[in-house]
Amino acid sequence: SMHGATRETRSTCPYCGVGCGVIIESAGAQITGVRGDPDHPANFGRLCTKGSTLHLTATAAVTMQTRLLQPMRRAERGTAPAAITWDAALDTATAKFAQVIRDHGHDAVGFYISGQLLTEDYYVFNKLAKGLIGTNNIDTNSRLCMSSAVAGYKKTLGADAPPACYDDFNHAQCLFIVGSNTAWAHPILFRRIEDAKRANPAMKIVVVDPRRTDTCEIADLHLAIQPGTDVMLFHGLLHLMLREGWTRPDYIAAHTSGFDTLAARVRDCTPERVAQVCGIDARDLLETARLFATSAATLSLYCQGLNQSSSGTAKNATLINLHLATGQIGRPGAGPFSLTGQPNAMGGREVGGMANLLGAHRDLANPAHRAEVAALWGVADVPAAPGKTAVEMFQAAADGEVRALWIACTNPAQSMPDQATVRRALERCEFVVVQEAFATTATCAYADLLLPATTWGEKLGTVTNSERRISRVRQAVPAPGGARHDWSAVADFAQRLEAVLPPRSVTPLFPYALDAEAGAEAIWNEHRESTRGRDLDITGLSWPILDAQGPQQWPCPADTACGGNDNGNATALPAVRRQFGKARLYEDGVFPTPDGRARFYDVAYKPVAEAREPRYPLSLNTGRLRDQWHGMSRTGTLGRLFGHVPEPVVQMHPQDMVHRALRDGDLVQVASKRGAIVLPAQGSTDIGPGQSFIAMHWGEEALSGRSSAGERLAGVNTLSTPVFCPDSKQPELKHAAVQIAKA
Ligand code: SF4
């Protein structure tokens, strides 16, 4: 019963891509506690500061009234929105979208969604855009998070599939951590790394990061490279591996293609040149090459330092080059392993929830894949024209090309680069729908229609974590007020839109029960069917299996489920539970490419998009804090999560402080070509001379700014550049050139 005694519900933490299992304690409609799920193979009962305070943030959101609890319509921009019914809200949205589509074409509408949505939410949005409306203008904040990792995997290994698993920490002899402050951004994985190091003190850890982060405390070697020089570093490592005879010619010959052109490319990446470009010691470079290539098993962990870059794909792919050249892949403890930023960026990719993807790792650019998806959905076709990716979508809206935007579970008016353009886009749009759990995000101010969504503790569905593991998200308490599950509200809208658009299929496209868990399960089952025969085949799984056996990794085709396949973490699981899926990929050396061979990626090193120059002489880096999440709409409601870092600061090297006659706490203006913000300065030797760092989380209330044209803006993305990687279209949030002076 939902009333009376304390109930316990197994679910998943909604924050990061570690995907920890939680047990939610509730009494009636109140969430009263949370603890780690001892049976969940991601965390075995542990939670970090964010996860362990989930119940408190849930309560704080109620007492501080930050939740959006009913649909609201704004008659005019800038006025207060008024409550309306769900029927009126969805009818309004239907009429508006239908009108824009009729008058301006399918591509005049766009959807900007989130790696925090559940797989079922993602699936319905994708089918709505690509199946019903006939536009590929659907992209997500995963574009700002993992799209370079996706492109890097596909270009080298042939599929968007992280080949390693968390259990590999226990088998690695060398950990190569690049562009990831694991200690703060993926804390429970860091605990597992600490455990592994304690159990195996011989394991060597190399951390590559321009900053000396807390992650460096466990490192045997820290390479503080100059921002954006990763590709030069990786080429330099390969150069040394070749020179020293540390590559694996047998592996290269048997399982790869394209090595010779790459080997020719790295010939002039001499240690002297690489040391100079990267700003590191040539002896450290040699030691890193030796550790990586000659250890019994080398595991790379990497995150936004590689992804959020104008050469994000090149950084990912040239790191994977090193694994292929040394055969450090497809064995326990060896392989490239991208750490997912958001809780369900993986699940979103699985259902094809981006502008260039289709469901079950199919590609929009592939006519056969488009035909397969059209057949699965029962529609005549899926449009071929590529959709707009995140930065392009807001640019198109600012240009008047995209006229109606539906934004769900994300806050682009804080999190997108180049805020001046994003805010112009939202102002210019004829119709903006914001589907949100929180009424407080900056984007809500631009909404014509606000749709209240359920959030953690109320939502149900599935997510996939960094190691390809699918976990159930379960509902502990009823939805508050008029909040609805995202998939349910969107399917409701889609049913209404289907009734007014020219027919696309003979049978209804969204035949899901809108008010029952069975609706979400039916959506998941539809997704499951689309994976049959694909690299992420999950036809061996079902919600009852996930209930009975716990979270499972893909691939898990029907035959493995029948036969059982206890590898990976199985020994650590309770006896009643079994692991069916594959813990690690490519153990047979066969890759999902046309010829079965992995491909080396040959690409030239390119420096950051916005070089330092006399007017903007400092590099600005951005990143996470330990106790905050994204734009703080959840973590910002809890005082204790500000104990670690109470306010925004810009960190600079003491020498750069002295040059500007600055002392700790002095207010400074940080300006890029796009705008300026004012905040206190803090000297720190954790970053090198010529560099600066600001945490990404702070928004309107804490960090005000102005665009170069004088518009009011907020947060670090006042400064950031919209320049993106040509392959992944992921913007360079990790680097901008700035000037800093006393305010
Ligand atoms: Fe949640 Fe990530 Fe912390 Fe685990 S490590 S409790 S998933 S925020």
Entry keywords:
743 residues; alpha/beta; Rossmann fold; Dimethylsulfoxide Reductase, domain 2; 3 domains; 23 helices; globular; binds iron/sulfur cluster
Blueprint of the fold:
Elements: E1 6-12, E2 21-27, E3 30-36, H1 54-63, E4 72-73, E5 82-83, H2 86-104, E6 109-113, H3 119-133, E7 138-140, H4 147-156, E8 174-178, H5 182-185, H6 187-199, E9 204-208, E10 221-223, H7 230-244, H8 249-255, E11 256-257, H9 259-265, H10 271-278, H11 282-294, E12 298-302, H12 304-307, H13 312-326, E13 335-338, H14 345-350, E14 357-358, E15 362-363, H15 367-377, H16 390-398, E16 404-408, H17 412-415, H18 419-428, E17 431-436, E18 449-452, E19 461-464, E20 469-473, H19 486-500, H20 517-530, H21 543-549, E21 552-553, H22 558-563, E22 598-599, E23 618-623, E24 650-652, H23 654-659, E25 667-671, E26 675-683, E27 691-695, E28 704-707, E29 712-714, E30 736-742
Parallel strand pairs: 6-7, 6-16, 8-9, 8-12, 9-10, 11-22, 12-13, 16-17, 17-18, 23-27, 24-26
Antiparallel strand pairs: 1-2, 2-3, 4-5, 4-18, 14-15, 19-20, 20-21, 23-30, 24-27, 25-26, 25-30, 26-28, 28-29
Helix pairs in contact: 2-19, 3-19, 3-20, 4-13, 7-10, 7-11, 7-13, 16-18
The structure holds iron/sulfur cluster (SF4).
Summarize the structure.
Helix 2 packs across helix 19 (486-500) and helix 3 packs across helix 20 (517-530). This protein is of the alpha/beta class. The protein has 23 helices and 30 strands.
Describe this structure in words.
The protein has three domains: 244 residues, 3-Layer(aba) Sandwich (Rossmann fold), CATH 3.40.50.740; 198 residues, 3-Layer(aba) Sandwich (Dimethylsulfoxide Reductase, domain 2); 125 residues, Barwin-like endoglucanases (Beta Barrel). It is 31% helix and 18% strand. It contains 23 helices and 30 strands. The strands form seven sheets. Strands 5-4-18-17-16-6-7 form a seven-stranded mixed beta sheet, with helices on both faces. A hairpin with a 4-residue loop joins strand 19 and strand 20. It starts with 5 loop residues before the first strand and ends with a strand. About 2% of the residues have low confidence. It binds iron/sulfur cluster.
